[in-house]
Design a protein that fits this description.
This protein has helices at about 1-10, 25-35, 35-40, 60-80, 110-115, and strands spanning about 20-25, 45-50, 55-60, 85-90, 95-100. The chain has about 120 residues and is an alpha+beta fold.
Amino acid sequence: MIEDLLLLRKVGQAQKPLGQESVDLVELVHEAVAMTGLLMESKNLVVDVDVPERPVLALGEREELDKVVLNVVSNAAKYTPEGRRVRISLETDTDRVVLRVADPGPGRTEQDQAQLSPGFSPPTP
């Protein structure tokens, strides 16, 4: 969990701005679901993926964005109790993309959330 927090903090650091290539987040979500598929299947998790059929592009470094997406999806797979549901969605707004991974796992404490980069706000239920 600490590594997850550090990775998210690193992504938001101004000293190391992300690259400026176009990265398809729909593709990254599908890859992350495929990579965690065996674990999700072994735990009998129901996985709902709600992403647009068209590419959703974000500017950044593919490798870093891939790590973030895989990390969040794999945490849902690891920490969701057996037989439960994981919901993954991508939503676009005028100037941003929102990746949501909702699961009934334990979540992050307020103390953990305080370690994330400024400007990060977890979704409200």
